[in-house]
TrEMBL record:
Name used for this protein in its record: PiggyBac transposable element-derived protein domain-containing protein
Coiled-coil portions: none
Bias-annotated ranges (Low complexity): 362-380
Pfam short name (any one): DDE_Tnp_1_7
Residue intervals of the PiggyBac transposable element-derived protein domain: 44-214, 261-354
Region: Disordered, residue numbers: 359-389
Family annotation (InterPro entries): PGBD (IPR029526), PiggyBac_TE-derived (IPR052638)
Organismal lineage: Eukaryota, Metazoa, Chordata, Craniata, Vertebrata
């Protein structure tokens, strides 16, 4: 914003300097944010599905079934929207009750009924292995490094942007923790972050921690308040805090200067000298902050410009969202790096749901964050699985009555009724439509014929 570049057809770049003069910038008055409280408070599950909505569930269901078919054309695996929602619910509850291993949730001594009663361990692991978010056949030729997870980012950002915008927002980096090596250079190391290894995203948040927008480092997009009057504080980006060696700033001697296109540059000595850029806040009115002085060994009052005070007051939105995400972070250990971003999308949706719930509900009847998440998992509208019994042995008269037309039909892979009686464990997807038992029927074995001809 301080230097303008013109690129000519012959690839010659000219730098047009901005004129700076010593002057302050007039503060811009912002409208007060008034949140309209609803007459009826929704259930936690309804808040969550405002963002992680049916469109996302349908997309995941379709892409998972597509991936399973692409991986093994003969597979009988299929899933549905209820099962995907159950899978997400289990992941959320695993963030509340943390155990060392996924198997512990189904183990006899450490069994967690809220998880084990919703889905079997075998089915959960199978879903985790095949869950997918984009069509692999379209990845060739694309330059999008986040292709595997891109549709979910698009859906979730659309849902977040539907929420009413607050006047004061902040933009900062967000680290999604990931230490695996399968992501290549998508994984970054930032020494100053609590999660030093992971994926770096940029997010725009309100003061209370609601994430309005997210984008990755490879995405070309704009981050703003979408035409509404507002103030956005930024860290290490185009405005807000700036590097002191930035072009046309490193030569500035005055403490406060303003460009001819309305950009204020301020240098202020805190623990170190910091440089700020602003387009709507000036130096006045000055305020006082308390800082520790190494010379006097005491805490001394220091004058602070208004633009820096505003930055310190309004940059906490991203940090608050990070704190809420880390309270009950969804666990997902996998070599597939995009699954970590999938669980982060679940966590951010859950955090945003909690923030909006806090806005809507009065303090006297407000749930705690842990109660909110726990009640979300218990109120999820998913059908409980019906545990199957052992397959019955059909009546011998029915079994050997050839007039009943014992035709083979395709079904799920289960233990062959004939082979298992011989002591072998073989599986087949061929079912007798009359006897309702699974029987092998291939080039090596024809248990279907033998089962209906001989008495075991």
């Amino acid at each position: 914003m301080c230097i303008f570049f013109l690129q000519l057809p012959n690839n010659i770049i000219f730098v047009l300097p901005t004129t700076w003069h010593k002057a302050d910038l007039k503060n811009t008055a912002l409208p007060e944010y008034q949140h309209s409280t609803p007459d009826c408070i929704d259930l936690p599950f309804q808040y969550f599905t405002r963002y992680f909505d049916d469109q996302i569930i349908r997309h995941i269901t379709y892409q998972t079934n597509l991936y399973a078919a692409q991986k093994d054309i003969n597979t009988t695996f299929t899933t549905n929207e209820n099962e995907i929602l159950t899978f997400v619910t289990i992941l959320i509850y695993m963030g509340i009750v943390e155990l060392p291993s996924v198997d512990d949730y189904w183990a006899r001594k450490t069994n967690v009924p809220q998880v084990a009663n919703l889905m079997s361990s075998k089915r959960f692991k199978l879903l985790k292995r095949v869950i997918h978010f984009n069509n692999n056949t379209r990845i060739y030729g694309t330059s999008d490094r986040f292709f595997k997870i891109r549709p979910l980012f698009s859906f979730i950002n659309t849902a977040f942007r539907r929420e009413s915008q607050t006047p004061k927002q902040s933009v900062d980096e967000v680290m999604v923790a990931y230490k695996g090596k399968k992501a290549g250079n998508l994984r970054q190391y930032i020494k100053s972050k609590p999660d030093k290894w992971g994926f770096k995203l940029f997010a725009r948040a309100s003061e209370d921690g609601f994430i309005h927008d997210m984008c990755d480092t490879s995405e070309t997009t704009t981050v703003g308040t979408q035409g509404q009057p507002g103030r956005t504080e930024l860290e290490s980006l185009h405005s807000g805090q700036s590097r002191r060696w930035r072009k046309r700033l490193c030569l500035m001697v005055p403490v406060t200067v303003t460009s001819d296109d309305g950009i204020l540059a301020v240098r202020w000595k805190d623990n170190k000298t910091v440089t700020f850029l602003s387009t709507d806040m000036g130096v006045a009115p000055m305020s006082t902050v308390i800082r520790y002085c190494s010379e006097t060994k005491k805490r001394e009052p220091v004058s602070c410009p208004a633009v820096i005070r505003s930055y310190n007051d309004n940059m906490r939105g991203i940090d608050k969202s990070d704190m809420l995400v880390h309270l009950y972070r969804t666990p997902m250990k996998s070599k597939r790096w995009y699954l970590r971003l999938f669980t982060y999308i679940i966590d951010v949706s859950l955090t945003n749901a909690w923030v909006v719930y806090k806005r809507d509900s009065p303090p006297s009847s407000r749930r705690s964050s842990s109660s909110f998440v726990e009640s979300l998992t218990s109120s999820t509208d998913v059908p409980k699985p019906i545990r199957g019994h052992r397959s019955h042995t059909p009546n011998l008269a029915v079994r050997f009555d050839m007039s009943l037309f014992h035709a083979p039909v395709h079904g799920e892979h289960q233990t062959c009724k004939h082979c298992s009686r011989k002591g072998n464990i073989m599986r087949s997807n061929v079912v007798c439509r009359v006897c309702k038992v699974h029987l092998c029927m291939n080039s090596e074995r024809n248990c279907f014929v033998k089962y209906h001809e001989e008495v075991a």
